[in-house]
Specification:
Elements lengths: L2 H26 L8 H22 L2 H25 L14 H4 L12 H20 L8 H21 L3 H10 L5 H22 L18 E7 L14 H9 L2 E6 L7 H10 L13 H5 L7 H7 L3 E5 L9 H8 L3 E3 L9 E2 L2 E2 L1 H11 L12 E6 L18 H23 L4 E7 L18 E8 L8 E2 L2 E2 H12 L9
Parallel strand pairs: 1-7, 1-8, 2-10, 2-11, 3-4, 3-7
Antiparallel strand pairs: 2-9, 5-6, 8-9
Length: 498
C-alpha cells in the first residue's frame, strides 16, 4: 500500500473520531463545551492523540477510530458517575488506580472480572477486536523497510511529543493553558482527554512544595495516637441518632470541630497526606489529586519523621491490603518504622466485609500498652486508618440491614465505641489522641455541594495534664490539623497551636 493510499482512510477515520468524540462528550457533559476556536483545537488534538495511540497497535484506521470513540464513551460514563458520587470530574491520576479495580472491585462500585456481567462484555469485546483485525487490512506501506520505519516511528513520535511537554518551552505553553488546577472549567473548555494529558504533564513538571518546619523543644507526651476514621462525621448531621462519643468530645476534648477535607466520598489519601504533612492541597499544584502518586511519600518533615526525630517509635496501623494506594511503600518513606496491616489482624472480628473498628482500637492500645511503666521501646507515635465503614453500602453487606444509610449508621456506632475505648485506654497517660474523618460518606443523603466537599468532624484529646484547657470548638482544614499535630509531637515553645 502506498503512502498516499494510507493517508486517505486515516484522515477520514480521524475526522470521524474527532466528530464522534466531541458528540459523546457534549451529550454527557453537565456543562456546554466551549466553542472557542483555540479550545476546540486543543480538544481535537486530544482526540487525535488518543486515535493515534490506538492506531500504533493495529495500523487499522477504523479500528483506531472506534477505539477512540469507545475510550471517550467509557470516560464519559465514569465521569458522570464520579461527578454524581464525588462531585469531581475524571482526572489523570485516576488511571493509576485502574490496577486496583480488578483486585478490589467492591471498593469501586463494580463487579469482579469473574462475574458474567463483566466477563461477558469483555470476551465479546476481545472477539470483536480479533475479528476486526482479520476483516480490516493494515494500513502499512508496501515495503518491509518502510513498514518497519512506520511501526517504530509513530510510537517514537508520540513519545517525543510527550517529552516535549516536559521541556521548558513545553511547560511554558502548558502553564498558559493550565495555570492552576480547575478541573470543571478545564474539562468544559478542552475536554476530558486533553485536560488529563495537560494535567499529567503539568504535574510531572512541577517542583515539590515543602512541608512547614517546626522549631522548639521536645514533646513531653509518652504516646501520640492519630486515628483517621473512615467516612466519619457526626451521624446526627445525616438525621441519625446522637452518638455518645460526640457528647464526650464536647465535654472532654481539648479542641474539636468541623474539618474541611480535600475530597468528598473518596480519595482517602488526600486527607491522609494533608494531616501527615501539614500541606494544604493548594500548595501541591497538580499533584493534589493523588499526593502519594505525585510525591511517593518523600516528605522529609512528615509528621512521622518529626516524631521519630523526637524519640518516638513510629507505627502505622491499617487493617487492609498492603498494596492498596501503595501504602506499604509510601508509609515507609513517610517515616514509619513498623507497619501493622491486614495480615496482622488474622482472626480479628469483621463487621460486614472489613475488620471491626473496635478490634483496631484494641490493637492500638496493645501497641502502646505500658511495659514496666513505659510504652514498649519508649515513646510511641501511632497513625491509624480504619476500614469498617468503607463504602459502598449496598444490600447484602449486613444481615437484615439493606438500606445504605442504616448500614452506615450501624457501622458509625461501632466507630464511636472504638474511639471511646481509646479515650478510656489512654486516660491517665501522658498522651495525645486525635481522631478525624477522612471524608464524608458517599450516600444519597450526603451528596457533595456545588461549593466543595462536605466537612467531617475531628477531636483532639490531651491526657495526663493538670492545665488542660476547657473544650473549645475550632474549625480547621486537614492541613491545619496536621500543623496542630506537629506541635504535639515536636511542639513550639508557645505550645499547642490551631
Amino acid at each position: 500500500m502506498s503512502l498516499s493510499t494510507l493517508l486517505v482512510p486515516l484522515e477520514v477515520a480521524l475526522v470521524v473520531s474527532l466528530l464522534g468524540a466531541f458528540a459523546i462528550e457534549a451529550a454527557a457533559s453537565p456543562r456546554p463545551p466551549s466553542l472557542r476556536p483555540r479550545d476546540l483545537a486543543i480538544r481535537a488534538a486530544g482526540y487525535a492523540l488518543i486515535t493515534l495511540f490506538w492506531f500504533q497497535f493495529s495500523w487499522r484506521p477504523w479500528l483506531a477510530a472506534s477505539s477512540c470513540l469507545l475510550t471517550l464513551a467509557i470516560l464519559a460514563v465514569v465521569d458522570r458517575l464520579k461527578r454524581k458520587v464525588i462531585g469531581e470530574p475524571v482526572v489523570f491520576s485516576d488511571l493509576a488506580l485502574l490496577a486496583q479495580v480488578p483486585r478490589h472491585p467492591q471498593l469501586y462500585y463494580t463487579l469482579p472480572l469473574t462475574d458474567l456481567r463483566i466477563a461477558g462484555p469483555l470476551l465479546i469485546g476481545l472477539a470483536t477486536v480479533v475479528a476486526w483485525y482479520v476483516l480490516e487490512p493494515a494500513a502499512l506501506p508496501d515495503t518491509a523497510v518502510a513498514s518497519l520505519l512506520a511501526i517504530l516511528g509513530l510510537p517514537a513520535g508520540l513519545a517525543a511529543l510527550a517529552f516535549a511537554g516536559l521541556t521548558r518551552p513545553g511547560q511554558k505553553i502548558l502553564r498558559r493553558l493550565f495555570p492552576r488546577p480547575d478541573l470543571a472549567r478545564d474539562v468544559a473548555r478542552y475536554g476530558l482527554v486533553a485536560t488529563m494529558m495537560g494535567y499529567a504533564l503539568r504535574r510531572l513538571g512541577e517542583e515539590h512544595a515543602r512541608s512547614p518546619l517546626n522549631t522548639g523543644g521536645d514533646s513531653d507526651d509518652e504516646v501520640v495516637v492519630v486515628v483517621q476514621l473512615e467516612s466519619f462525621l457526626d451521624p446526627a448531621r445525616l438525621g441519625g441518632p446522637d452518638l455518645p462519643l460526640m457528647a464526650r468530645i464536647r465535654a472532654q476534648a481539648a479542641q474539636y470541630g468541623r474539618l474541611a477535607v480535600p475530597a468528598h466520598g473518596a480519595y482517602t489519601m488526600r486527607a491522609e497526606h494533608a494531616v501527615l504533612t501539614g500541606l494544604d492541597p493548594d500548595l501541591l499544584g497538580f499533584g493534589r489529586y493523588d499526593p502519594y502518586l505525585a510525591r511517593k511519600g518523600e516528605e522529609p518533615s512528615s509528621l512521622a519523621r518529626l516524631a521519630r526525630a523526637a524519640g518516638f517509635a513510629t507505627v502505622f496501623v491499617h487493617p487492609f491490603h498492603r498494596d492498596f494506594f501503595d501504602r506499604a511503600r509510601v508509609f515507609r518513606s513517610l517515616g514509619f518504622d513498623r507497619l501493622v496491616m491486614e495480615e496482622d489482624f488474622a482472626g480479628a472480628p469483621r463487621i460486614g466485609p472489613y475488620i471491626a473498628d473496635v478490634a483496631v482500637a484494641e490493637r492500638i492500645l496493645a501497641e502502646v500498652a505500658p511495659v514496666g511503666g513505659h510504652a514498649p521501646g519508649g515513646r510511641t507515635f501511632v497513625f491509624c486508618v480504619t476500614m469498617e465503614n468503607h463504602g459502598p453500602w449496598k444490600p447484602g453487606r449486613l444481615a437484615g440491614i439493606d438500606d445504605p444509610l442504616a448500614q452506615y449508621l450501624h457501622h458509625v456506632a461501632h466507630t464511636g465505641a472504638a474511639v471511646e475505648r481509646l479515650v478510656d485506654g489512654l486516660a491517665g497517660r501522658r498522651a495525645t489522641l486525635c481522631v478525624f474523618g477522612d471524608h464524608a460518606p458517599s450516600l444519597p443523603e450526603c451528596r457533595p455541594p456545588a461549593s466543595g466537599p462536605v466537612a467531617t468532624d475531628y477531636a483532639l484529646f490531651r491526657f495526663g495534664r493538670d492545665d488542660t484547657p476547657s473544650p473549645a470548638r475550632i474549625d480547621l482544614t486537614a492541613a491545619q490539623l496536621g500543623c496542630v499535630l506537629r506541635d504535639a509531637v515536636f511542639p513550639k515553645r508557645t505550645g499547642l497551636g490551631g
